[in-house]
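Translate structure to sequence.
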């Protein structure tokens, strides 16, 4: 069986030092290297996940389509460091969501060279799944009842919510009220910034089209915090571990799932079982991509509806 290997026992800053390269079999390995021989730093060699062989998935029209084209098409994001990120210079894709997508593809018998990553804007995700443009979507995709009218979800594989990113030397915050009289930045029109405007009038808000602009202001000291889904903030904290940190708890709850065609119970069950049985793999993927953030996150139980 072909294997994907990773460096054991090291944290690598997401999107800055986490370079996923294709091994001889086409599988990705964090930190570079071929992943087909030799040993890890420290002399320890660990298996991350395997590419399955002779896979069958009866009753899944999505898997039938994958088999016919001999390729997996995955919808992703590519502008979120640590989660779903594309380095336009090197062409390398990195992030927790990207590796979750690779893990699923491997469980279906498809290696890196048989995966097509397709960036899909948030507003177009359901339609892309309904149209069959993608086989599944992994990209900070919150499970909710409205979306489940059109598609199904496997997972959740991650639970997050509105969080706060601050300077590494800032005092810990326990509530949004701690930022009364201060300036908090987020993306224009985002739910977190709307929440602050509506409920915390003593907080000054600043808005940009991109979260990266907010993070730049935070690094420069012109804002006191950045707010959005904590998972996204963890990615930035991992990118700047000596300068930024995530503080406080979750002020809302968002359950990230894998979006897939409605009624494809066979594929949904397969992915849910993969997550349920693969706790060590899930943790390795999290540690490699987001471990440098310093925050501890537990893998959630799947909702096997």
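Result:
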């Amino acid at each position: 069986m072909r294997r994907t290997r990773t460096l054991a026992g090291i944290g690598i800053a997401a999107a800055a030092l986490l370079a996923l390269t294709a091994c001889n079999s086409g599988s990705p390995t964090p930190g570079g290297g071929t992943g087909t021989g030799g040993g890890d730093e420290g002399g320890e060699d660990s298996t991350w996940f395997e590419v399955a062989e002779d896979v069958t998935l009866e009753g899944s029209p999505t898997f039938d389509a994958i088999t016919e084209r001999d390729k997996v098409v995955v919808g992703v994001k590519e502008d979120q460091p640590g989660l779903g990120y594309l380095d336009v210079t090197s062409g390398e894709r990195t992030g927790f969501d990207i590796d979750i997508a690779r893990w699923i593809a491997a469980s279906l018998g498809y290696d890196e060279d048989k995966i097509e990553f397709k960036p899909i804007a948030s507003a177009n995700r359901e339609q892309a799944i309904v149209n069959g443009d993608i086989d599944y979507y992994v990209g900070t995709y919150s499970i909710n009842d409205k979306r489940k009218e059109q598609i199904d979800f496997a997972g959740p594989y991650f639970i997050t919510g509105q969080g706060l990113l601050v300077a590494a030397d800032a005092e810990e915050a326990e509530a949004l009220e701690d930022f009364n009289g201060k300036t908090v930045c987020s993306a224009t029109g985002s739910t977190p910034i709307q929440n602050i405007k509506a409920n915390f009038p003593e907080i000054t808000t600043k808005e940009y089209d991109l979260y990266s602009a907010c993070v730049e202001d935070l690094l420069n000291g012109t804002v006191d915090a950045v707010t959005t889904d904590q998972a996204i903030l963890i990615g930035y904290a991992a990118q700047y571990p000596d300068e930024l940190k995530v503080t406080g708890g979750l002020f809302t709850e968002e359950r990230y799932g894998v979006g897939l065609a409605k009624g494809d119970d066979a594929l949904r069950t397969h992915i849910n079982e993969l997550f349920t049985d693969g706790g060590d793999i899930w943790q390795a993927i999290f540690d490699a991509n987001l471990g440098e953030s310093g925050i501890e996150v537990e893998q959630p139980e799947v909702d096997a509806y």
